[in-house]
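Hello again, I could really use a second opinion on something today. I've been puzzling over a protein and I'd love to understand its fold better. I'm sending you its amino acid sequence along with the backbone structure tokens. It would help a lot if you went through both lines with me. I've dropped the whole record in just underneath, so have a look.
***
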Amino acid sequence: MTNLRKEAKGRDCQVRMPGICNFNPETTVLAHYRMAGTCGTGIKPHDAQAAHACSSCHDEIDRRTRHVDEQTARLYHAEGVFRTQELLRSEGKL
């Protein structure tokens, strides 16, 4: 099975928050989308439930920065998860 965390390195950010995204693939990591029923304290969701996110979008997702409200960050993150899943499916990695 493909290591989706390693796959994120060097990829374009799929979260793409306007005014926040740094568009630097060198900072891209796999940002897991946390949702009740799919994770817990200290337990991350499955790697397929994650987005390729630049460091700036990832900081916003994890609320280390707060340039947008939490609902907006979650929406952009969810859209990034869908884009990442589609990208990985098209490459036969998901």
User: Anything to note?
Assistant: The mean pLDDT is 93. The CA atoms of residues 60 and 66 lie 6 Å apart. The chain has one domain: 4-90.
